[in-house]
Amino acid sequence: MKKSPLFYSIIFLVVLASCAKVYYSPEAENASKSHRIIAVVSPKVSIPPQKKMTNEEILDLTIKESETFQYEMVAWLLKRKGENKINVDILDATTTIAKIQNARSDGKLLTPLEMAEILNVDAVITSNYKLTKPMSTGAAIATTLLFGFGNTNEVNVTMELHDRANKKMIWNFSHAVSGGLFSSSDQLVDEVMRIASKKLPYTKFKK
What we know:
The protein is α/β, with parallel strands linked by helices. It contains 8 helices and 8 strands, in the order H-E-E-H-E-E-H-E-H-H-E-H-E-E-H-H. The longest helix is centred in the first third of the chain and has 28 residues, at 55-82.
């Protein structure tokens, strides 16, 4: 059966909750122009306690979402590079994950500079996704299909670009979005990266 436009507008609903905030350090322009390759490291994902979900289930979900977000972010940057909108190379997510996991064999936390050194890249993008609810659940899908709208999920996203040579953060991006709980992880990242990728120094200060 052919779905109506309203059906798809409900499924893919993601609306802006506020304007994005962007910071460029004084070194951002010169530093970004010298970069040849960058990496997107695993985002930090946080979800508050949920009814009918144990702490272990939430932890497992945040780990899975983090990996999904990371792959989607890399895919978006590669898309921008393919469109010749940025000219820096992006290290693939699989290599990034493997090298960082091997370096963290003792479980210690790594600084952005340490990760840039381990990955042998000019800069790393770190990010933090704060969700009010999991991205999708059976209950949310049922609610959306029966009544047309799911519960609202508010997401606050922060990204930072850390320069290896200057040993400091040269770019910061923060944004808040909200949408139906049925919105998937890739739809969320698509919305965030659509805006964030245009605000990166590689776009603003393109050679």
